[in-house]
Every structure is written in structure tokens, then in C-alpha cells.
Amino acid sequence: MDKDLRNSLWNVFYENVLANLGGPINTNKRYDAFFKKMWREFLKEPVDSMPTYPSTIGAQLKSSYFKEPLNLKGFEDVGIHSSNNWYQVYDFLEFVVENYPANSNKKFIRDCNYILERELSAYRFVGNCLVTITNEQEIAAVEQALQTKHDTHYANTHLETALKLFADKLNPDFRNVIKESISAVEAICTAITKANGQKTSTLGEALKVIEKKAHIELHPTLKVAFDKMYGYTSDGGIRHYIKDDEEVNVEDAQYMLVTCSAFVNYLTEKARKAEIEL
User: What rounded mean pLDDT belongs to the chain?
Assistant: First the structure.
């Protein structure tokens, strides 16, 4: 992460959060809870040493996470490393989005994404996570699917899990990103078939029932593609068994996350037009 990106992201945090607070933190209950959680759970500092004013916390955050790291190239062999890693900045921004008062989050995310795009970062906010998806149509597909919340299925829950696994900066779990993504499709398919009094055990069965019983017309090529995609996820240990020689990479995981999100959106709209309550 270069200096321009680091400084610009700090400016977004300062202008959206710190600049809104002039007095002591405890004078505003919403912000008091936010900064206490930041101090206790993110910075992991002693609670009894928490400063009274947000500017003091801001100074510590800037020093710890947004200061340009020292050039320690050549010293790694003796165990000396920079503490200002790029992923820590992104972890902090995700913490803010997860915990900052919800009515302020949209602008914060929008401002962050503007900076990330302007500075040519490989990351964007999708939902509450920073991930390596930069295509606007793909971002829109995933975010729309994340908002698909129903009592009868948990497609969005599977997608939220997939997104968090994909967003892990140090240990992304691409195999389970794919598993959770296809599980989201299974969840909405099962909800549609259940609404028509049918029980299905596989995605292929569900797609057939959706056409015959729910009267939702699926394009033949699309149906075959997803049936085969389900078969792919059953290979290589992704769903049912583990094979060490099968590799799942970032491209596979991203493709499945985006494609399954789009298919959840597609089936949600098809169900709405067929007047099926999910």
C-alpha cells in the first residue's frame, strides 16, 4: 500500500468519523459505544486507559495503522519486520463499517471505494468486506444478493459467509467460498420447491421441480450450466471429500461467488413474478 492510498483512506476516516466529534466521547452514546469497542476489541488496549477525546484515539490509530511503514528490507532474516502491514489498514476499515452507526456507513463505504478506485487499489467494499472484486456489475450482483433476506431460506447468510472467507487477507479459504456460494443457490431453490410442497435433495432435482411444479421457466442452457456447476463443486473435495492435489484459486472462488449471487437474484425475481412467497 503506497503513501497516497494510505493517507487518502485516513482522510476518509477522519472526515467521516473524527471530524464529527468535537467533545468528549461519552457525550454521545452511539459514538461512545463505537469507540469503546474499537479500544477494547480492535486495538485491544486496557479499558481503564481509554482516552476521553476521539482526537487522542485518532492519533494512536494514525500512528499504529496509517503511518508509512519503515523500509526494513534486508532485516527480515533477523526477525525485524514492519508493524504497518497493508492488510491492517483494510482490517481497520472493515471494523469501522461493521461497527459504526449504520446511518453513516453508506457514505463511508462510498468514499472508501472512490479512493480505492482512484488510487488503483485491487480492493473494493462489497457489503461490509473489502475484497478483490473491482467490476461494478459484479459488485452490484453480490450486494443485491446479500440483501435477499427471507425467513424461509438463508441464501444471504451463505453468501455473507462466502464473502468473509474470500475477504480474509492472510488466509482466504477459497474452497469454502465455493461451497458457501453454491449452498446459497441450493437454499433459495429449496425454498421455492418447499413453497410448492416438494422436497429435494440436490440442486439438479430442485431445478427440475422449479420448472415443473413452480412454473418458473428456466433457460435450458442456464439450467444445464448450473447443474454442471453443482457437479464441479462436488469434485476436488470442495463439498464431500478432500484431495490434496486439487487446487482452488482466487479466480475460481470469485467466479463462483459472483455467479451464484447473480443466480440467487435471478431466481428471486422469477419467484416474485410467479407469485411465490419466499
Answer: 84
**CB contact at 8 A, 137 and 145:** no
Q: What is the 3-state secondary structure (H, E, C) of the chain?
A: CCHHHHHHHHHHHHHHCHHHCCCCHHHCHHHHHHHHHHHHHHCCCCHHHCCCCHHHHHHHHHHHHCCCCCCCCCCHHHCCCCCCCHHHHHHHHHHHHHHCCHHHHHHHHHHHHHHHHHCCCCCEEECCEEECCCCHHHHHHHHHHHCCCCCCCCHHHHHHHHHHHHHCCCCCCHHHHHHHHHHHHHHHHHHHHHHCCCCCCCHHHHHHHHHHCCCCCCCHHHHHHHHHHHHHHCCCCCCCCCCCCCCCCHHHHHHHHHHHHHHHHHHHHHHHHCCCCC
| Integer Cα distance of 150 and 152 in angstroms | 5
Q: Which amino acid is at 158?
A: H
* Per-residue pLDDT tens digits for 167-194: 999 899 999 999 999 999 988 988 888 8
Cα–Cα distance measured from residue 84 to residue 64, given in angstroms and rounded to the nearest whole number: 7
Q: Rounded to whole angstroms, what are the CA distances from 244 to 69, 165, 191, 212, 233?
A: 37, 19, 34, 40, 15
Under CATH, to which class is 135-278 assigned? mainly alpha
CA atoms within 13 A on the CB side of 179: 17
Whole-angstrom CA distances from 148 to 155, 158, 164, 239 are 7, 11, 17, 24
Indicate the domain borders of the chain.
1-121, 135-278
Give the CA distances from residue 29 to residues 19, 24, 25, 26, 154, in Å, rounded to whole numbers and listed in that order: 17, 11, 8, 6, 33
The model's pTM: 0.81
Rg over alpha carbons for the chain, rounded to the nearest Å, is: 22
